[in-house]
Protein: Thioesterase
Amino acid sequence: MGQPRDVWLRRFPGAAGGSGAGCELVCFPHAGGSAAYWRPLSLALAPGVDVVAVQYPGRLDRLHEAPVEDLHRLADLIAEVLGPSGGRPRALFGHSMGASLAYEVAVRLGRLPGGGPDLLVVSGRRAPAAARWRDRCVSVDDHEIVERVRRLGGTDTALFDEPELLELVLPALRGDYRALSSYEDTGGRPLTCPVVALTGDRDPEVTVEEVEVWGEQTSGAFRTHVFGGGHFFLDDHAEAVAELVRGLLPTRAG
Structure:
């Protein structure tokens, strides 16, 4: 028996989605990130979209839990919690590490009767085929992890200037980067749903060419959207991203 949904999934006050909304959008944070990262998008898409954000173990209200250091194991746990959508349209949206995780969850859901998502949106992450050799070089040394995350930017980097806060976030970061360094994709073209890839044109983590390889992961439609900015271009283009996602999401009427 798996854990209940409220252990893993978060909704945000003020974002009146719920089961009455036309589509469920499941959002997956970046390495070291938490469900709270998706609050602005949740508010922007309310009330027509039911945004639920995944809270990984080892952070915020799950700080007492050990991080999951295997991306495939983490995908297994999340897919079990989500299960089939029950006929309501569902899309998955992951940023950075969350993109790889959303993809693996989509693969697992696709093996269930009526379980596959209607759309996968991946952001700020190279495709699995392009990631295979590069992620093997990811360091899991604490100092190098911190310096790498600093270079990427984002609002969370302010935590690194406070030693006590740094000690709180390091276990999650360490666990996430270990998961990335050992990750290998399931191979082939396991998805049939449309895949949309978003990226920043100055992202030091991924090139536009590596993002475009995501098209190899599905037999469905594929397209790429390039924004100006670095790894956290979502923060700089929040309104445009919300509008784009709203237009992509499936509805009950198809």
Notes: The chain has a mean pLDDT of 88. The chain is about 35% helix and 15% strand. The longest helix spans residues 163-181. The chain has one domain: 5-245.
